[in-house]
Write a structure and sequence with these properties.
Layout lengths: L30 H25 L1 E3 L2 E3 L2 H21 L4 H26 L3 H22 L6 H26 L12 H30 L6 H29 L2
Helix pairs in contact: 1-3, 1-7, 2-3, 3-7, 4-6, 4-7, 5-6, 6-7
Length: 253
């Protein structure tokens, strides 16, 4: 049960005291319940994203409104709630909706910034994100893509490598330096963004497999919220990477 998503890892369904798979009682995790809760989290995210979007405007080519408070507050708040959810997964029925609400503020703010620079980019990124989600879900359910152990290991390793690279890049920015090529709109930068998009998309396959495993093993009911949260983490990452890729492509025009 390997997943590149840090919210969905090998020990998620294990009881910490016994090390055995958690078994649900009368209220067990179901696929329909997980789908419904994922839909609710998406709705909450869209609502707060729309609010953040409405608070930000463009004046003479400059972003006006509470961009930084919404973007930084959403990013930091989302990170904190994500960490709490990962380490206290039984709190997911509360922390997952809060994460969706806070993350929506962040997404709405940065989406408005990208839209101001590249009109139409947000709708393109949204369509690509959901198109990828449903396309990979269809491929997974039809058996066209199978989450074998080698597949899981490869995607998890690639995800970890991207995380380390982004961490190093963030550290360099703190000292006023930029990591060359990967953030630029040249062929290397576009190729890197394409690679990251593919890895993020493949994480969806691992998430589908992980959720299916939880349902089969009759995990507790609250794991529906946790699984929906984990899927949201991947979707947010995929959407942001699509924005980055599209912005690089449009900046070349």
């Amino acid at each position: 049960m390997r997943s590149g998503n840090p919210a969905l890892k090998e020990s998620t369904f294990l009881d910490l005291a016994t090390g055995s798979v958690v078994q649900g009682d009368s209220q067990a995790m179901s696929l329909n319940g997980t789908v419904n809760k994922t839909g609710l989290l998406l709705l909450l995210t869209v609502l707060t994203a729309a609010f953040a979007w409405s608070q930000i405007s463009v004046v003479n080519g400059e972003i006006a409104g509470p961009f930084l408070p919404l973007a930084l507050g959403g990013a930091i708040g989302g990170f904190v709630l994500a960490m709490v959810t990962v380490f206290k997964k039984e709190w997911a029925p509360v922390t997952a909706p809060l994460y969706a609400l806070v993350e929506g503020l962040f997404l709405g703010a940065i989406s408005s910034m990208f839209e101001a620079r590249y009109p139409g980019i947000v709708m393109q990124a949204v369509m690509l994100t959901f198109g990828t989600l449903f396309g990979l879900l269809l491929a997974y359910r039809s058996g066209l893509i199978k989450a074998t152990e080698n597949f899981k290991l490869g995607v998890a390793a690639a995800t970890g490598g991207i995380f380390v690279l982004y961490l190093v890049s963030f550290g360099m920015r703190l000292f006023g330096k930029e990591m060359p090529y990967i953030h630029e709109s040249g062929l290397i930068g576009i190729g890197f963004s394409l690679f990251v998009v593919v890895v993020a998309a493949l994480n969806l396959v691992l998430d589908f497999d992980f959720i299916e495993t939880g349902v089969e093993q009759r995990a507790p009911k609250y794991m529906e919220w946790y699984a929906a949260f984990g899927l949201m983490v991947t979707l947010v990452w995929l959407y942001i990477e699509f924005l980055r890729l599209l912005s690089k492509l449009q900046s070349r025009n």
